[in-house]
Design a protein that fits this description.
Structural class: alpha+beta
Number of helices: 22
Largest sheet: 6 strands, antiparallel
Distance between the termini: 30 Å
Helix content: 55-70%
Length: 1082
């Protein structure tokens, strides 16, 4: 048959402009998101196939133009064109165009009328009225749910029998006339016919009974043949599957054995590498220990050499410094000697100068002995005459010195008071700032205290509510516990425990050396009386599974997830955080440690028992337990934890108390600062200011007194000088001086200066002699020191040479050890890399081994399932053959006899199994003839008027597999969809259309039925017809030859775009394998 090549649309619904959809393969699926315009492809095909506008989801034909639904049509016309390709290669085109409010039809680009257009469509097998090639979205079930009358009309449209209605009416009228003529003759024979009829009814009744017996026998035979046929097919299929699974299992086991050998070899290699690594590590540690021993010796030798070198350098430096100091000392000694010579020369010159001056002055003023006596007498007279004034002058001078000292003291005191006033002002400012901070802190504390009190009130209310709620919840909990205790959950718990036991056995098979079992199975108390205490202490670890390592535990958890089993608790021996046992608990009388009352056959489980039991104690009586827990020396029960909100309340109360205390201290400190310290500072400031004023007034008074007294002292000195001038007047005239004071000043002053100068010369000479003697002694000491340092340097050089030799030997040994250590480190790194690589290879091979082991378990489970199913089917076959023998149902056998069928006699288990196997082998040799077996009818049409079916309706019924007969309304959505598709394909076999267009007919189907329908369509499209399906399910469109993807784009309004993908270049091997299996299972 022909097929549709492409679909050309232009401005039709969501398709803007001219769009080419296709090319269409024999089996094409149209996919895309919701609202992208997939169903508009269906509308375009319906439109070009002559469908009425009312069936295209619009009110008038203008709404089919793109953009018209939002009032913005992009054009005044739209068109759809189909290119149809005949089997001979001839190309035909069907086009329908919208112009104005009507549509135009074109065939092969030539305008034609609607009737001619429909005629051309019927020539290629498309009947417009019957819609034999179009199934719209959501209408697939309506095909199976049609009323009988509607179904009759559907079949008439398909078969074109409506054209014969006129001829049928004419012939029916003639038949009625003939029947009226025959009625008259029939009445004449009525009496004879009645008697004949009575005899005939009796005969028919007897015949019908015999026929029913024969039919019952035949139906029984058919029933047994049907059962045997399908049983034999199942057995053959199970045998085939069992052979395939056994073959895969053997291959997998060989692979498992191969990988197990590889893992063992890798482990052996890893062990050898680990031993080498341990040996290298041991050598490296011993070498490091030796190196740690030698390195300090080298460092000590190096430090010793460095120390001696530093001492030598210091000695050399000291020698240089001492030589410099010696040369400087010698220069100083020469300078002192020179200075001493110069001083002697200067002293002699000074004495000579003094003698010359004395001679010269002696010539100028030279008192005779009488004049000198007279001078002394006059001086005595002056002293006596001015004695009173001298005393008064001395008194005034003493008072003047006293006032000057007092004035200086007051000045110092004035400065001190000013400094104190400045400090007082600074302290007052500091206290003011402190007061401001305290006031701010007091305000903050007050606000915080207010907030905390509000929180305290809220928490108190919440705690009260929580306590009342807790009492209510505890009451409800007690009720629920009592209900749960009375609930019967034994059956569910038994199944659950059985499944958990199976999971544990499987884990033991996977990890035989790493999974030990459940804790309750691995240990038990030494006496039954401890059973309850141990159970209570074990708690949630009671049914925990003990494994060897954390990695095994993770693998087991991954296996549980894959198997979707219940969660389990795993105790890994290398992952447990075990706390030490408190040995003092063993000394408590009246109790035992739980760890001491549990015994196990596995020593490695001691760690697990210690982890679970901890420091738990078990007592003989409740009183002893209470005594030990609450009154004993070791309290083993923690105090009850306070509720979180109560802890928050206590914390807030503590905060309130602390804030209140701080606030109290701050307020008291603020009060003390304001009332005491600040007032004291102000008082002290005022006192210091008044004292400052007093000091200033006293200083002023002392200054005035000092000035007045200075005047008086000058007056007294003038009076004394006048008396002295009067007494020495004639004496001064004799010696030729103006006054005696001038003579005294010159003569006495010169004498004093000469004496002072001689004294200075004496002191300087003494100083130079002492300094010279000291410098000579120092020079001698330094020369001795230099000689000592030279001897030390010579000895130090010899010591340094010896130390350098020792250092070189130590360095050589350390270098050799470090070189050896580096070599061992490189070797260790290489070996460690090899070990890690080997470990990674072991892990990789182990993962492969575990994956293959899981696959072996999977195949073994499948083998067990297949063997169980096979055993069940063989038993069913045995029972059916035994029923045929007992009930004497005559089935035709090609080989064997029903006499070989015997009942199984119960004996021992081995004898019963052997007898059953022998019986099944004999029954396998029996071959049944199934040629008389009728096909099973699943769906059928039944006319309401078998004589004239075209006058009444036609019923359509379908029996779902494995279900009894039910009306079509009682079937599920998927069953209705499958029934509708079956009817649709059956109609197509009578009046084939070149292609089918289905819109989301798989919406109500599950994956199994989607696979069957898609496989059937895939087979039929190879030779029978072309299929175009709009689908959203991957299981369906993955079987297609090509995909047409529809996706939306948006600007002013949505418009559709198209993508095409050819799937023929991707072979569907998986689909062919599943189809083969489905055919074998049917």
């Amino acid at each position: 048959m022909g097929r549709m090549e492409v679909l050309l649309v232009e401005n039709f619904k969501s398709w803007r402009g001219r769009q080419v959809i296709g090319p269409f393969k024999r089996f094409t699926c149209i996919i895309g998101p919701n609202g992208s315009g997939k169903s508009n492809v269906m509308d375009a095909l319906s439109f070009v196939m002559g469908e009425k506008i009312a069936n295209l989801r619009v009110k008038n034909i203008q709404e089919l133009i793109h953009g018209a639904h939002i009032g913005k049509p992009v054009s005044s016309s739209a068109s759809v064109k189909v290119v149809y390709l005949e089997e001979s290669g001839e190309e035909k085109t069907f086009a329908r165009t919208i112009r104005g409010g009507c549509s135009e039809y074109r065939f092969n680009d030539n305008p034609v009328s609607r009737s001619a257009y429909i005629t051309e469509l019927e020539k290629i097998g498309i009947i417009v009225k019957a819609r034999n090639c179009l199934v719209f979205q959501g209408t697939v079930e309506s095909i199976s749910m049609k009323k009988p009358k509607e179904r009759t009309q559907f079949f008439e449209e398909i078969s074109s029998s409506r054209e014969l209605i006129g001829e049928y009416e004419e012939k029916k009228r003639k038949l009625q006339k003939a029947e009226e003529d025959a009625q008259f003759n029939f009445n004449k024979k009525k009496n004879v016919a009645a008697e004949r009829k009575h005899a005939k009814l009796e005969k028919e009744e007897a015949d019908r009974y015999q026929n029913l017996l024969e039919e019952l026998k035949i139906n029984k035979i058919q029933l047994q043949l049907f059962r045997l046929y399908h049983n034999e097919k199942k057995i053959n299929f199970l045998y085939t599957e069992l052979e395939r699974v056994n073959k895969n299992l053997s291959v997998t086991k060989e692979s498992l054995s191969h990988h197990e050998n590889i893992v063992k070899a890798k482990k052996k290699e890893h062990g050898m590498l680990s031993r080498q690594l341990q040996q290298t590590e041991k050598e490296l540690k011993s070498l490091e220990a030796l190196l740690n021993q030698k390195r300090p010796q080298y460092i000590k030798a190096k430090e010793n050499t460095s120390h001696h070198l530093k001492k030598l350098d210091v000695a050399k430096k000291s020698i240089k410094d001492s030589e410099k100091q010696c040369s400087k000392q010698e220069d100083d000694i020469k300078a002192l000697e020179t200075e001493l010579v110069d001083l002697d020369g200067a002293w002699r010159s000074f004495e000579k100068q003094i003698e010359e001056e004395m001679l010269h002055k002696g010539r100028d003023i030279e008192l005779e002995a009488g004049q000198l006596v007279q001078y002394k007498e006059l001086k005595e007279q002056v002293r006596k005459k001015v004695a009173i004034m001298t005393q008064q002058l001395e008194k005034l001078q003493w008072e003047q010195r006293s006032d000057e000292d007092r004035w200086a003291f007051e000045k110092r005191r004035h400065g001190e008071v000013q400094e104190n006033i400045k400090q007082i002002k600074e302290q007052i400012e500091d206290h003011k700032k402190r007061i401001e901070k305290l006031e701010e802190y007091t305000k903050t504390c007050t606000n915080c205290l207010k907030e905390k009190k509000e929180q305290e009130e809220n928490l108190v209310n919440e705690i009260e509510k929580t306590k009342s709620r807790m009492s209510e919840v505890n009451e409800e909990l007690n009720l629920i516990r009592s209900e749960l205790q009375n609930a019967g959950i034994d059956t569910h718990e038994g199944k659950r425990q059985q499944k958990r036991a199976e999971i544990l056995e499987h884990l033991k098979r996977l990890y035989p050396d790493s999974v030990f079992g459940r804790l309750l199975d691995l240990c038990h108390p030494i006496h039954k009386k401890y059973q309850l205490a141990v159970t209570k202490l074990f708690g949630r670890y009671m049914v925990a599974i003990v494994v060897a390592s954390e990695k095994v535990a993770k693998d087991c958890i991954r296996f549980l997830k894959e198997e979707r089993a219940e969660p389990e608790t795993f105790l890994a021996l290398d992952y447990l955080d075990i706390k030490p046992i408190n040995e003092r608990l063993r000394e408590i009388k009246g109790c035992k440690m739980v760890i001491d009352v549990i015994k196990t056959q596995f020593p490695q489980l001691k760690k697990v028992i210690q982890f679970v039991c901890g420091n738990g104690l078990v007592c003989e009586t409740l009183e002893e337990a209470r005594h030990i827990a609450f009154a004993g020396p070791e309290r083993r029960k923690d105090l009850m934890k306070i509720v979180r909100k109560e802890a928050d309340l206590k914390q807030i109360q503590a905060l309130i108390q602390g804030t209140t205390t701080r606030l109290k201290y701050a307020q008291s400190e603020l009060e003390i600062l304001k009332k005491k310290h600040l007032a004291a500072f102000h008082r002290e400031q005022s006192q210091l200011q008044s004292e400052l004023l007093n000091i200033e007034s006293q200083c002023a008074m002392l200054s005035e007194g000092i000035k007045e007294r200075q005047q008086r002292i000058k007056e007294f000195q003038r009076k004394i000088d006048k008396v002295e001038d009067d007494i020495f007047q004639h004496f001064c005239e004799e010696i030729g001086v103006e006054n005696i004071r001038e003579f005294e000043n010159k003569h006495i002053k010169q004498q004093q200066e000469a004496d002072q100068k001689r004294l200075e010369f004496e002191k300087q000479k003494t100083r130079l002699n002492i300094q010279l003697e000291y410098s000579r002694n120092q020079l001698k000491k330094k020369l001795n020191k230099i000689n000592t340092l030279k001897e030390t340097i010579q000895k130090g050089r010899e010591d340094i040479d010896n130390l350098k030799k020792v250092e070189e030997n130590c360095l050589k040994i350390v270098d050799e050890l470090m070189e050896k250590q580096q070599h061992l480190k490189d070797e260790f790194v290489t070996q460690n890399t090899n070990v890690e690589k080997a470990q990674a290879q072991i892990e990789e091979e182990r993962k492969k081994f575990l994956a293959i082991d899981r696959e072996v378990g999977k195949w073994q489970k499948e083998v067990v399932i297949l063997q169980s199913s096979l055993e069940q089917n063989r038993l069913e076959k045995h029972n059916m053959l035994l029923d045929c023998k007992v009930q004497d149902i005559e089935i035709v056998l090609l080989l064997g006899s029903l006499d070989d069928i015997i009942e199984v006699e119960l004996g021992t288990e081995a004898e019963s199994t052997q007898a059953t196997t022998d019986i099944y082998e004999k029954e396998a040799a029996i071959e049944v003839d199934y040629s008389s077996l009728r096909e099973d009818l699943k769906a059928f049409l039944s006319p309401e008027n078998p004589e004239e079916p075209y006058l009444e309706g036609i019923s359509y019924n379908c029996v779902a597999p494995g279900k009894r007969f039910m009306p079509m309304d009682n079937l599920s959505g998927g069953e209705k969809c499958v029934a509708a598709l079956a009817l649709l394909f059956a109609v197509h076999s009578f009046r084939p259309a070149p292609f089918f267009v289905l819109d989301e007919v798989d919406a109500a189907l599950d994956n199994t039925n989607i696979g069957k329908v898609s496989s059937y369509i895939k087979e039929q499209t190879q030779e029978q017809f072309q299929m175009i399906i709009i689908s959203l399910k991957e299981e369906f469109y993955s079987k297609a030859d090509a995909l047409i993807g529809i996706y939306p784009e948006h600007d002013d309004c949505m418009f559709s775009r198209v993508l095409t993908l050819d799937l023929s270049q991707y072979p569907d091997t998986e689909g062919r394998e599943s189809s083969r299996r489905q055919r074998q299972s049917l």
